Amino acid sequence: MQRLVNGETAIEIAKSFGYRSPAPVMDAARDLIVTKLGAERYLALADQPGMGYVRIARVLGKEALKKD
After folding, report:
1. Which of 2, 3, 44, 60 could in theory staple to 8 by disulfide, Cβ–Cβ 3.0 to 4.6 A?
2. What's the confidence (pLDDT) of residue 20?
3. Where are the domains of the chain?
C-alpha cells in the first residue's frame, strides 16, 4: 500500500513480487482499505466516475495505513 501511495505503479509492485498481473497487488490494497476503513468508504469512492482501484488506493491508502 505504501508503495502505491508513493506513486509506484501496481504493475511495478507486482513484478517485484514475481507476478505478471497487478491484480494481486490491487486485491491486497482493496482488502487493507476495507479492513481498516470499512466497505462503505471504499464503495462510496468506487461508485464515482473515474475512480478505479489505483486511484482509490492512493486516495484512501494513506489514511488506511495510519489506522492501527
Report:
1. 3
2. 96
3. 2-66
